[in-house]
Amino acid sequence: MPRQPEGYRVFDQIKLSAWTAGIRDKYKLPLRVELWNGEQVDLSSEQPRVTIRVPGPGSLHYLLSPTLGNLGEAYVEGALEIEGSAADMIQIGNSLAESTGKPARHSRVASALRMVSPHTREKDAEAIRYHYDVSNEFYQEFLDPAMVYSCAYFETGDEDLATAQTKKIDHILTKIGVQPGHTLLDIGCGWGALVLRAAQKFGARCVGVTLSQNQFELARERVARAGLQDRIEIRLQDYRDVAGEFDRITSVGMFEHVGVQHLSEYFGRIDRLLAPGGVVMNHGITTTDVEQRASPWGGGEFIDRYVFPHGELAHLSTVIRTMQEGGLEVRDVENLRRHYARTCAIWTENFEAKAAHIRKLADPKTFRIWHVYLAGCAYAFAHDWISLYQIVCGKAGRDPAQMPWSRRYMYDGSGAVDLLSTRH
């Protein structure tokens, strides 16, 4: 056997041997561990689907304390070399994390510390730029052609991603009853897919706001190419600085950046922007932990550090309470958790299929972050760690006679129902 590098103590070797024996006996994972000295350890008789290479003694502690946070950090920072599909990496990583037997989620104290992070305009803009301004071409490689970076809507489960994303946008605009001539504000408009659809198919006059320079520039280009400059305005603007009144307001995949302690203010701002009789849709990710603690096994720390700085997930009960505190009445709630699990799985497949080109568009660290992040999200949605809700609201205290008797209008596909029309 090759000479052991200095620092690989007998204690480490005994601890590693005990760890691999325990994993092999209890979990039988299709995992191979390769040490820097050439030693290989297979953790089941099955053909390995994931290989973890430990390049030196200094990286051994990541493997011996395999929380999702530790393993994710080790992979991103290059302390461990991990080969395999992202879905297999996440599944096996979660099994390793469970083997530690530690509490699945952070304590309330840790959760409280997370929720006092500052959400100033400057901090929020910085966080958005970090996540979204990698490059437009980077996102184009794994998103659908319209570049919709939020949960798709699968009516049958057989749709391709582009079809499911179009159906999602139509589902939202039909739910809120967009009609020709309505003014629509899209908070966090991304690359403009929703406002383009709202203007083209539903005849709305739209304003889309984003804090991402890349999104702003491409969304404006798309509006110009569509010849819709007279119907759509894209702004590089914080939602807190928007003025005026709008018949319809949408917020898709944005309120996760607001901060739990600021949700009442956020919904209050939406209420002030909403015209009398107007309708708003909030489409966003929630935690399924009623105490709003971080995702299990250190996954939340990884997201905080590498993916969404200052991002915070509220429980559905908190969302509904803060909507009411902000002056809004919840009128419809739909759970699309299964839909987001499939969306993220497709994004992961696309990312891996285009990996060679994506590596040219981003530095190695960024590539590794998104590689495991997308698959990790698919796993988290599939296993009910997090969820996705579409919530339709109106101003509280309005006459319920203005509401349709049934929800059938949401699924007839016409988008022709005039919900709480401002012309009443």
TrEMBL record:
<dbReference type="GO" id="GO:0032259">
    <property type="term" value="P:methylation"/>
</dbReference>
<keyword id="KW-0443">Lipid metabolism</keyword>
<dbReference type="InterPro" id="IPR029063">
    <property type="entry name" value="SAM-dependent_MTases_sf"/>
</dbReference>
<dbReference type="Pfam" id="PF25371">
    <property type="entry name" value="DUF7884"/>
</dbReference>
<keyword id="KW-0808">Transferase</keyword>
<keyword id="KW-0949">S-adenosyl-L-methionine</keyword>
<comment type="similarity">
    <text>Belongs to the CFA/CMAS family.</text>
</comment>
<dbReference type="GO" id="GO:0008168">
    <property type="term" value="F:methyltransferase activity"/>
</dbReference>
<protein>
    <submittedName>
        <fullName>Class I SAM-dependent methyltransferase</fullName>
        <ecNumber>2.1.1.-</ecNumber>
    </submittedName>
</protein>
<feature type="domain" description="DUF7884">
    <location>
        <begin position="23"/>
        <end position="99"/>
    </location>
</feature>
<dbReference type="InterPro" id="IPR050723">
    <property type="entry name" value="CFA/CMAS"/>
</dbReference>
<dbReference type="Pfam" id="PF02353">
    <property type="entry name" value="CMAS"/>
</dbReference>
<dbReference type="InterPro" id="IPR057206">
    <property type="entry name" value="DUF7884"/>
</dbReference>
<keyword id="KW-0489">Methyltransferase</keyword>
<dbReference type="InterPro" id="IPR003333">
    <property type="entry name" value="CMAS"/>
</dbReference>
